[in-house]
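lol forgot to send this yesterday, sorry. C-alpha cells for the thing we talked abt
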C-alpha cells in the first residue's frame, strides 16, 4: 500500500487498532480529529523560544525526574518544548518513547493551559518509569501549571 504506514508508527500503542493494522495518511477519517493532532503551532521550535521560557519562567513544577517550566505567551493556545538528552533517557528508542508520551500527555491536557509556553526537562532515570508512571507524574505537573494558569499565582 503506497502512502500508508503501520498505525503503531503513527499513534501510541494504546490508541492503535489491532496489531498490524494500517492507516493511510491520506485517509480523512485518520487525520480529521484535530484533538488527535500535534500541530506545528503547538510546538516550541526555535532556541529563542526555549530561552524565553528558561529566562522568564513564571511557574515551575518538578519532582525527582521531571521539571516543567512555564511562561505565558501572547497566543491563545499553549506550546510544548521537550529536552530529553541521551544522558537522561538513554538510546534513541528510549528517548523517543519518553517524547511520545510527553506529547501525548500534553495533547490530552492542553485545554487546561491557555496561553503558556511549556518546557519539559527530564533527569537520568526517567526511562526506568513505566508508561503509566510517567503519565501519572506528568498529570500532576500539568495540574500544577494549570492551577497557576487560572489563578495567576507564582508557585516557585
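and heres what i got for the seq, position by position
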Amino acid at each position: 500500500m503506497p502512502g500508508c504506514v503501520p498505525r503503531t508508527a503513527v499513534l501510541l500503542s494504546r490508541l492503535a487498532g489491532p496489531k498490524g493494522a494500517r492507516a493511510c495518511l491520506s485517509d480523512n477519517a485518520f487525520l480529521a480529529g484535530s484533538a488527535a493532532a500535534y500541530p506545528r503551532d503547538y510546538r516550541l521550535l526555535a532556541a529563542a523560544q526555549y530561552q524565553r521560557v528558561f529566562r522568564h519562567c513564571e511557574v515551575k513544577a518538578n519532582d525527582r525526574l521531571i521539571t516543567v517550566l512555564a511562561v505565558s505567551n501572547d497566543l491563545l493556545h499553549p506550546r510544548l518544548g521537550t529536552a530529553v538528552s541521551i544522558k537522561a533517557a538513554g538510546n534513541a528508542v528510549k528517548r523517543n518513547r519518553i517524547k511520545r508520551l510527553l506529547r501525548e500527555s500534553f495533547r490530552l491536557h492542553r485545554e487546561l493551559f491557555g496561553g503558556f509556553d511549556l518546557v519539559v526537562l527530564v533527569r537520568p532515570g526517567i526511562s526506568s518509569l513505566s508508561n503509566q508512571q510517567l503519565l501519572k507524574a506528568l498529570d500532576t505537573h500539568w495540574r500544577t501549571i494549570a492551577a497557576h494558569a487560572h489563578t495567576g499565582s507564582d508557585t516557585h
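The first strand starts at residue 4 and ends at 6. anyway ping me if u want another try
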